[in-house]
Design a protein that fits this description.
By secondary structure, this protein is of the alpha/beta class. The protein has helices spanning 9-12, 20-23, 34-39, 41-47, 82-94, 113-120, 180-196, 245-257, 272-275, 293-296, 301-314, 333-337, 339-349, 379-383, 419-422, 426-430, 436-449, 451-454, 533-538, and strands at 15-18, 51-54, 98-103, 132-133, 154-157, 162-165, 200-203, 263-266, 288-289, 322-324, 355-359, 457-464, 467-474, 477-484, 490-493, 501-506, 515-516, 519-522, 527-532. Strand 13 (467-474) and strand 14 form a beta hairpin. The longest helix is centred in the middle third of the chain and has 17 residues, at 180-196. The structure holds 1-deoxynojirimycin. 1-deoxynojirimycin (NOJ) binds at residues 64, 67, 104, 168, 204-205, 267, 328-329.
Amino acid sequence: MSVTSRHRWWQRGILYEVYVRSWADASGDGVGDLRGIRSRLDHLAWLGVDAIWITPFFPSPMVDGGYDVADYTGVDPLFGTIGDFDALLAAAHDRSLRVILDLVPNHTSDRHPWFIESRASRSSPKRDWYLWRDPAPGGGPPNNWVSEFGGPAWEWDAATEQYYYHAFASAQPDLNWRHPQVRGAMYDAMRFWLDRGVDGFRVDVMWHMLKDEHFRDDPPNPDYRAGMAEYRSLIHAYSSDQPDVHEVVREMRAVLDGYDERLLIGEIYLPVDELVDYYGREGHEAHLPFNFHLIGTPWDARQIAVLIDRYEGALPEHAWPNWVLGNHDQPRVASRIGDAQARVAAMLLLTLRGTPTLYYGEELGLRDAEISPDRVTDVREESEPGRGLGRDPERTPMPWDASEHGGFTHGLPWLPLGELNRSRSVEAQRDDPGSMLTLHRRLIALRRAEPALAIGDYWPVHAGGDVLAYRRTHGGRDLLVALNLGSSHARLALPPGLGPFRVLLATIGSLEGGTCQRELELPANAGMILEPLASSDRR
Ligand code: NOJ
C-alpha cells in the first residue's frame, strides 16, 4: 500500500459548497436547482475539486432558505424532482465528484407532518418528538433561552397552552433528540439517501441537537455589549453542546459506517478545545467537525499562527484537520480582508494541513453584494434588522458569463448578482493567467500533485509582522509557504538550514521561478509556495 492510499478520499480531497439556490438555474424561475447544478458540473471537474456539499433542496416552506425541512426524503419542486437528483448524482460520480447532502436534524419546519401531529394535542403520539414545556411558574417562557435569530427561543401555542422550543426561527421547532423514535426516523432518512449513493452528510448545527434535560437558564455573558446579536447576551451552557450529544453523533456515524467511505461533517461553532471533542474519543464521531476559526480570527500573521498551533495541538491523534474561509452564513472572505488578501487567503486555505472547503464563488473572488431593503429575503435580516446580520449579501447568484443575469438564469434572479460580481464571471476569468480563478485552479492542481501539500506534515517557520511562513513535508519533499498578510513589502530571513528555494507558485505571477538564498523578499500581498532549489534542479 502506498503512503497516499492510506488516506481516505476526503483527507486528500477538496470540498466545495454549492448553495443550491444560487449556483445555476435550469428551470428559469430565478432560483438555482438540481438540473442547473448538473449542467455546470464540468466547472468543478475543471477546477479540480473532489466533492460538492449541496445545501438543502428538500420540501420546505423556505422560511430559512430550506433549513426548515418539511420532508427529509423528498425534493422541493423549486429544486426539481428525485429523478433530477438521481441524474445529478450519477453525472457527478461519472466525473469522480462525490456528493454530500445537508442533513438538518436539529429542527424541522413547523409544516412537517411530525410537528403538525405533535402540536395537534397534548396527547398526540408525537407530542414528545418536540420540546414542549409549560409556562414558568409566574407565567411567560419556561426559561431564558434566546433564539440564534434573536428573541425568545420559546413560542406559545395557544391551542394546547404550552410553549415549544426553537433554536432558530419560530417556524423551525427543535426535535427532541432524547426520543428514540426521533433518532430512528432521522437515521432512516439518512439511509434513504445513502442507499441512493450519496457520499455523506454535512450535519446542520450538530452541537445544538441536545439541550439540558432540566432546561436550566443559560448564564448571562459578561462580555455582551450593545449592538451585538441578542443571541450573544447569554453563554449557552445549557442550550447547546451538552455532553450526551456525542452519543447521538456516534450513532449517526454508525449509520454511515454501515456503508463504504462515506463522510460525516459537523457544522459546529465552538472554541477549538470543545470543537475537537466532536471527532470522538476513539474517532467514532464526525470525520470533519468544520473548523470555522479562520473566519473569526483577525487577519494577522501571529494570530493566525497561534490559531494553527492551538488547533494542531488540540487535535486528537486520529483526527484529520480541516479549514474553511467562508460559507452561506458568513460575510465573504474577499469582503472581510479585501481582494488582494483574498488571493493570499486562498493560498493559505489550500496549503494548510487538512481538508479545505471552498464556498462557491470564492474561486472567483466574489464579494458580498449590496442588497437594497426591498430585495431582502433572509429571515436573519428580518429578525434583527439593520445590524448587518442578514446573509443575503453572501448568497447572491454565481456569475458564469457576460449575459444579462450572468448566465445564472433565463428568468429573474431571486437575489441581484451585484455589478462587481458580474464582472468576475467564470467566463471572464477562465483564460486569464492572472485571475483569481486561475490561481485557485493552479493551487488545487499543485495540492493534488504534491503529497506534501495534500497529506504532508505541517511545521511552523515564522510568524511576525505581516509574514506567516510554514513548511509542508512528505517523503523527502519539503515545501515552504510564505505569506505576506499585509500591504507593504516584507522580508523573511530564512532560518539556518532552510533554503535555497525557488518559487513554484505565487499569488503574483511575476514572482514565479525566482530564487532566494538566505532572505526572501515578499512584495505587498504576496504569497508563495517554494521548493528547495537543489531538488528542483534535479528534476
Ligand atoms: C446553519 C445553517 O447553515 C444556516 O443557514 C441556518 O439558518 C441554521 N443552521 C439553521 O438551520
